Amino acid sequence: GVLKPIGDYLVLIGRISKEELKKFDRESKKKGIPVVDKLVENNVLTKENLEKLIEFKIQEIVDELFTWKKGEYKFRLGERLYSKSKCSVLVNPQFLIIEGMRRIDEWPKIKKSIPDSKIVFRRKKRPRLSIEMGEQEKVVLELIDGKMCVADVVASSGVGRFRTYHALYNLLEGGVIEKTAVVAKPRRKERKPIKISIEAIINVLLWTGAILFLVANIVFGIIKRPFYKKNQLLYTQESRHIENYKKKE
């Protein structure tokens, strides 16, 4: 999966708008500070909120690693995340690993019930409500509209992949939601237009012109004097030279 930067995550959960994020991003670049520090400075986040958010993002990374069947990694001793930020977070690696392993133990039963991220859920008209819903279940239930697939619910929930799947599993097992016959495709992001500088266009045109000029000269040379005519001329000159040599003898 792709883990979103903190700024994008805040937009996703509705804490700030895209326009506000762009504004804070520009201002942070002018000052040479991380955008998260700018968000704290403008009271979008408190320092405590930011610390919890970073811990949450780190746990998401660890959880994602435990789902890998194979992959590559690099150990960088002493390297820090958000090294330029004023906010420093101390995380117990043992707790991260134990929590990650606990979640992975639950993962097989969740994937058995929700095997495909393209599945679409809808709310039951007469739910049994055999579970007591927590905050995560309430957040996820608000997104269930009979149109969004699981992948889109994960992207929009703001509680992370595992927690979203866990909440969906609880809602499904609790009789609150049900699967539909629809199998949707996750919403694709709009591709950004490719920007090409005028200088690059001019260089391409110059190189193209030079290549065409070279090819035209080669083709024209072949047409004007084909290789077989050139060889025929050499052969004729050589034959005449041999005849003259024989006459002299």
From TrEMBL:
Keyword terms: Membrane, Transmembrane, Transmembrane helix
Pfam families: DUF4388 (PF14332)
InterPro entries reported in the protein's UniProt record: PatA-like_N (IPR025497), T2SS_E_N_sf (IPR037257)
Bilayer-spanning residue ranges: 200-223
Start and end residues of each PatA-like N-terminal domain: 31-107
Protein name: PatA-like N-terminal domain-containing protein
Source organism of this protein record: marine sediment metagenome
